Amino acid sequence: MVEAALTDAALQGMLTLVPMKRIGKPMEIAYGVLYFASEESSYTTGAELVIDGGWTIP
User: Fold this and answer.
1) What single-letter DSSP state applies at residue 25?
2) Domain count along the chain
3) What are the pLDDT digits (tens) for 3-48?
4) C-beta of residue 22 within 8 angstroms of C-beta of residue 55
5) Full DSSP string of the chain
6) Residue 8 exposure: Cα atoms within 13 Å on the Cβ side
7) Cα(20)–Cα(37) distance, rounded to whole angstroms?
8) Domain span at residue 49?
9) What is the Cα–Cα distance from 56 to 41, expressed in whole angstroms?
C-alpha cells in the first residue's frame, strides 16, 4: 500500500530508515495474523507482534 503511494525518491528515503532495507510483503503480515489465530498461540496473552522490518528499533 505504501509502495504504490510514494515516488521512487520518497521510497528510497524511507528505506534508509528501515534496517532490513525493503518494504514488507503482505504475506509477512499474514503470517503474524495466522500465528495469533492458530493453536500455536494458545498460551500467548497480551502480546504485541511488531512486523516492521526493524523500523521501531531504538
Assistant:
1) P
2) 1
3) 778 888 998 998 998 999 998 999 999 999 999 999 999 999 999 9
4) no
5) -HHHHS-HHHHHHHHTT-TT-SPPPHHHHHHHHHHHHSGGGTT--S-----STTTT--
6) 0
7) 26
8) 1-58
9) 23
CA distance 51 to 8: 23
* pLDDT for res 26: 92
C-alpha cell at 55: 523500523
The amino acid present at 43, given as its one-letter code, is Y
CA distance 24 to 31: 12
Q: How far apart are CA 16 and CA 22, in angstroms?
A: 9
DSSP state of 38: S
Locate 44 and state its grid cell: 500467548
